[in-house]
Specification:
Strand order of the largest sheet: 3-8-4-5-6-7
Radius of gyration: 22 Å
Largest sheet: 6 strands, antiparallel
Number of strands: 8
CATH superfamily of one domain: Ferrous iron transport protein A (FeoA)
Number of helices: 9
Strand content: 15-25%
Shape: elongated
CATH topology of one domain: SH3 type barrels
Helix content: 40-55%
CATH class of one domain: Mainly Beta
Length: 219
């Protein structure tokens, strides 16, 4: 991942654009990249040559460019970061999809590996299956669990303390009356990935995975 840290935003965007234009597996023409990026052909060629020098693309004059294996890995990481950021902005913060896509596109270039992993864990994204971006499974390969996770990452029989409820609607009062509010202790009695039976100081209640993902609990 060190190579990701060394790449500039413009270089990452060039890799991303090459990947998007090469969806059919063909080599990408510099003229197409110039049109997509709104850069002069000479600037596109210069950047591609620099990316070729560090082994991220294979470029042949008059024959276009394609990503190397390492370049494809970088493209996959960028795509993964974009998707988890967009999902966090839309599902958790309630940002409109169009605005979320624009913001995620800017943020994907400054996301550190640590924050990327924490976001993935929080959203229930299995790092081994980056294409499955909307699951709510626990990443059991993580060596140490983060201190704060969503309720969807709690196993049956586990006890935790509610720290944040990312739900701003008529449900907020209902959850609070049920004992599911910041500072309250809860126990996960049953969890199957689709529904979560929770025991609170006030009784028991069942939550679906969408609502459970918006409740942040301290281990």
């Amino acid at each position: 991942m060190a190579i990701m840290d060394a790449l500039s935003e413009s270089a990452e965007m060039m890799i991303k654009n090459i990947n998007e234009l090469a969806s059919n597996g063909d080599r990408v023409r510099t003229s197409d990249l110039s049109e997509k990026t709104e850069l002069k052909p000479a600037s596109v060629t210069e950047m591609i040559q620099r990316l070729g020098e560090i082994g991220l693309v294979d470029y042949e004059p008059y024959h276009g460019v394609h990503l190397t294996k390492q370049g494809q890995h970088v493209a996959n990481v960028i795509d993964h970061r974009f998707n988890i950021l967009k999902r966090f902005l839309t599902e958790i913060l309630g940002v409109e999809k169009e605005e979320a896509a624009e913001v995620a596109c800017r943020m994907e270039h400054i996301l550190t590996k640590d924050v990327e992993d924490r976001l993935s864990y929080f959203l229930g994204v299995e790092l081994e299956k980056e294409s499955d971006l909307f699951c709510h499974k626990v990443n059991i390969d993580t060596e140490t669990e983060p201190e704060f996770v969503s309720l969807t990452n709690f196993k049956e029989g586990k006890t935790g303390t509610v720290r944040l409820v990312l739900e701003k609607s008529e449900l907020t009062d209902t959850l609070e009356k049920a004992g599911l509010s910041p500072g309250r202790t809860i126990i996960v009695k049953k969890a199957n990935g689709k529904s979560y039976d929770i025991e609170t100081e006030n009784g028991t209640l069942s939550l679906d995975s969408d609502l459970a993902s918006k409740i942040i609990v301290q281990n």
